[in-house]
Write a structure and sequence with these properties.
Strand content: under 5%
Radius of gyration: 18 Å
Number of helices: 11
Largest sheet: 2 strands, antiparallel
Distance between the termini: 39 Å
Number of strands: 2
């Protein structure tokens, strides 16, 4: 727990500072998160080195395009990425099959693509505030679910995926998401009603994102995706909820504003 708190004390101010800084500083933060997350995913799923390198290249190109052009030219990047993956299968069909190619493609769609929505969220009006709020809500939901679930949780949420997650923790996370967005409503120029609804939806997205990562780790038969963050595990362990919250926040807030 001390290592967990120390990592948070050091890491959270850095993330918040880089988010408000924006520009290339924030892009580099997202790029590092995506590449390290892909590295953890590749190690967890035993991807070949060539497919891991393919993933890093696609992730870098995709995030760079999102940072410079937004969604405008991402279709071209995706088409080139899939074409290059098919070429790898063509010239290495003795070594790679559908399972390896599918695993590599899922990793790119799941990690850098979802992290990329942080860049899109940052481009919205009040984007810096929304992005910081998205980080904060995700951390608050995760913390509330952990402490309430460990103290009061008895009924498991989905024991075949994660034996530690409980309905009490999920309810605490949902309420926390609503409260965080309600308290931050003046900060992002929202009325209390919409703030409560958006906070609830993002709280549910955080819980679902956490469960998705737990399912992937269960399929890979590992406890943690990595150990780069003392007390937290890996990037995917710490930012699993954010991977689903970021696109959800972008679509809701992009439509609202």
């Amino acid at each position: 727990m001390l290592a967990r708190i120390a990592t948070a004390v050091v890491g959270i101010p850095i993330v918040i500072w880089l988010t408000f800084e924006g520009g290339w500083s924030f892009f580099l933060l997202v790029l590092v998160l995506a590449l390290v997350g892909l590295w953890e995913y590749g190690r967890m799923t035993h991807l070949s080195l060539l497919l891991q390198l393919w993933g890093y290249a696609v992730a870098s190109a995709l995030l760079l395009t999102l940072h410079i052009h937004g969604l405008e030219r991402t279709g071209s990047v995706i088409a080139i990425a899939v074409s290059s993956l098919l070429c790898i299968l063509l010239f290495g069909f003795d070594h790679y099959g559908f399972d390896q190619a599918g695993t590599a493609l899922l990793g790119v769609c799941y990690i850098p693509m979802f992290f990329g929505y942080l860049l899109l969220l940052r481009r919205l009006p009040l984007g810096a505030r929304f992005t910081v709020l998205t980080f904060g809500l995700t951390w608050a939901v995760d913390t509330a679910a952990f402490f309430v679930g460990s103290q009061f949780g008895q009924r498991h949420l989905k024991p075949d995926v994660s034996p530690c997650k409980t309905w009490a923790g999920a309810l605490a996370g949902l309420i926390t998401g609503s409260v965080v967005f309600l308290l931050a409503a003046p900060f992002v120029k929202l009325r209390p009603g919409p703030a409560l609804v958006i906070g609830s939806v993002l709280g549910m997205a955080a819980m679902l994102g956490d469960l998705i990562e737990s399912a992937l780790k269960r399929l890979a038969n590992v406890k943690d995706a990595g150990n780069i963050l003392p007390g937290h595990g890996g990037i995917l362990d710490r930012f699993d909820a954010l991977l689903l919250v970021a696109p959800t926040a972008y679509f809701i807030l992009g439509w609202w504003y």
